[in-house]
Amino acid sequence: MHHDFDSQRQYTLQHDRRLSAADGQLQMEGVGLAALAAQFGAPLFVYSAPEIRRNVDEIKQAFASHANTRICYASKACSLLAVLQVVRESGISIEANSANEIRRCLAAGFAGNQIVYNGVVKRDEELEFAIGQQLHAINVDSEHELLAIDRISRQLQIPVRICLRVEPNVKAATHEGLMTAFRAKSGVDLADAEGICRQALDMPYVKLCGLHMHVGDQVPDAEPFGAATRVLVDCARQLETALGVRFDMINVGGGIPAPYRYATDRGLGGPDNMQPQIGANEFAAAVIREVHAWREDIEICIEPGRKVVSSAGVLLTRMVTAKRKTLLREDGSVEGQVQWCMLDAGFNAIPDYKDWYFYVYNASRMADSHCQPVKLGGPLCDGGDYFRHGPLGEQFLLPPASAPGDVLAFLDVGAYQLENQTVYNAQPRSAAVLIDGPGQYRLIRRQERFDDMLLLERDLS
């Protein structure tokens, strides 16, 4: 197992389009990562603009056989303004899940008609704001929401484009918390779709554009996407006939998985969906096949998030201390020993620590063999604040010479980690740097300060 992990490290350095080593240290797009941690502090998120563009291009190429495809980046994956601007400059649209996410998209330069609005809870004030922006579409999650949109659009006398979100009742082989098309809180029953759509047709300012769904996140195979798209297409075909309408679009959501364990990795680590068998090409083929069996002219809307930014982000964390502890059984006998490396980032920085696998390398000693088993603990006063999924179960592999002061890099953390950071134990939320190109980088978010943490309690006027 040690050999497999070290072989993967060497293969990554030789073949990965993002990463390399110089003077024994890890680089991303030609920028030394340990030097970034020295300049800006740690924990530090580092994003690669070239990698975001490469990922967007992969999705565009995957859907090249259907010219009328609208790619809407799921901004919840990472909504840093600088990241959103890179996405906008890549030429695609965007998806938001709250009024404030819409505001972030607008602040990054997106036009209202480039934004799709999702969410199971849209308050009246959010709907009023969204309708005023004349979005590409609002994905309606319930009959109650549709009635609210009707009422508000009449008051404002502003037209609004909608898709109805339905639940295809298709399971996917991913974490139960990431399934959204089977016994989920989102969407309406297929049996209720016709009645709700009939109501929409009688609303003077509401334009019914089509149907929407989402299968789930980090789905490791293509079959659920094909099956769910088939259900969506069958429902849309039936509604077009029953209602005498012709839909403009069909929105199949997102879910293109990211490889957290690479295809070349023959070792172990993390749940099965960490090493998916598909990418953008297989996702696109499953969707396009089913849609083209119905219509080839309709707009296909997709909402990828993880696929766009996951591989574009790394987290840099510093080893602060190390210690060796004896593992005792309940009867006091010795089971063994474990080496602990204590980091300045725990589940406050990487909330997916329990269910996710990440490659962790010593960025300060990247050229050294990673063969020493260690457990990685975070700074929080919580017994569960340690990382669960390494190449040796709960143990990771680092160079034997690893020492306090070294910078470790967690790869592929660009999606959902920074967005879900907490301030537990009054730990500040991390700064972020964007690498614009070879040797070019800039600070795009400063680290949270103590005064920032007190602002909501002191600024009560």
UniProtKB/TrEMBL annotation:
The active site is at 381 (proton donor). GO terms for molecular function: diaminopimelate decarboxylase activity. It comes from the Bacteria. Its EC number is 4.1.1.20. InterPro entries: Ala_racemase/Decarboxylase_C, DAP_deCOOHase_LysA, De-COase2_N, De-COase2_pyr-phos_BS, Orn/DAP/Arg_de-COase, PLP-binding_barrel. Pathway: Amino-acid biosynthesis; L-lysine biosynthesis via DAP pathway; L-lysine from DL-2,6-diaminopimelate: step 1/1. The modification N6-(pyridoxal phosphate)lysine is found at residue 76. Keywords: Amino-acid biosynthesis, Decarboxylase, Lyase, Lysine biosynthesis, Pyridoxal phosphate. Residues 51-309 form the Orn/DAP/Arg decarboxylase 2 N-terminal domain. The keyword Metal-binding does not apply. GO terms for biological process: lysine biosynthetic process via diaminopimelate. Gene3D superfamilies: Alanine racemase, Lyase, Ornithine Decarboxylase, Chain A, domain 1. Its cofactor is pyridoxal 5'-phosphate. It catalyses: meso-2,6-diaminopimelate + H(+) = L-lysine + CO2. PANTHER family: DIAMINOPIMELATE DECARBOXYLASE, GROUP IV DECARBOXYLASE. This is Diaminopimelate decarboxylase.
